Amino acid sequence: MTADPATAETPELLVARLGQAGRAAQRELARLDPEIMAQGLRAAAAVLRASESAILAANAQDMAAAKAGGLSPAMLDRLRLDPARLADIANALDGVAALPDPVGAIISQDHRPNGLVMARVRIPIGLIGIIYESRPNVTADAAALCLRSGNAVLLRGGSEAVLSNRAIHLALVKGLVSQGIPADAVQLVPSQDRAIVGAMLTAAGLIDMIVPRGGKSLVARVQADARVPVLAHLDGICHTYVHSAADPDKAQAIALNAKLRRTGICGSMETLLLDSQFPASQAVVSALLEAGCELRGDARACALDSRMVPASAADWDTEYLDAILSVAVVDGLEAALAHIEQHGSHHTDAVVSEDAGICERFLAEVDSAIVMANASTQFADGGEFGLGAEIGIATGRLHARGPVALEGLTTYKWVVRGNGQIRP
Fold it and tell me: For the packed helices 162-177 and 137-148, what is the interaxial angle rounded to 10 degrees?
């Protein structure tokens, strides 16, 4: 592999150097009082606010280049910063600083008959690699969550957000260092060489976990090529099932919000399932169309409104991240469950019904990381769960599931305390 001209290092050597520095910094973090970490995050938030002009100017350059390069509207929305969004990023840092420190928490403890005290205690994972596209807020969110949980972090952002990421990282490090936190605890890869991703994915022994944040192709590559544990979700194909006993006003409001509040987030509804016995399906469909949403439906759904176009087989498995929605008419709960099982991505699925029994069955039988009753799927967000900023939504079954915040970035070890016991 050729050396990167920006660093005069091969991607493998660069990742090795950054990884070793990050691991050394993580050991320093272990010696810091948790309040120092909180103070560092608050200082980083203050510097972010003071750096608003520089960060927004950098983002404007990224946005101009992204538009010229034909980046999709959904990705442009993820990339765009404004004063309100930057304020939200800074506020999220303060929010994470205010969260309880998870490190050292006792998960369980047992006093054995022989006098040994055995406890499971939360500890950091170590050095976490974040590979992400478009979203400059991830630079700050990931740094905050990793640090508050005692981890160091190696950030590799996408080329479309390179200037925004650098400006945010510069502000973060300035604030953190002012409170005695090592700069190498939050590193941003200084190269956009695509081979860096491959080097990170194979850096077993240096990087302890990879978290991808981006499109399907990025996450699929990470899951296929990683030799390091991965925490990820591939698609956000989220469903809302409107049961026959749904309140029409609730159903309409939830459907509009779930699809159109922000179409480019992973919690956006991509498929609407309308019960064949629900009496207000036409009104829900009409409201979505009039709000500017393109609808692609099965034969029975298309019969509800002539403005709907027929869905293809691929539509049921597509994460649009746009004002496009698949619509199917189903015959009851069993059919809805079968559709979600066949086409869902185990991210977030919701039911709308005034029948408590139907809601409980849906919540119990849908195998997704997040299941909801009578609420918009747009609530699939760590902040809405009271977790503060999130590192992402995990749809796998192991380690962590759903919004991953502080606890999801820890593991545990067994701590055994004795008084001279020996095993007979």
Answer: 30
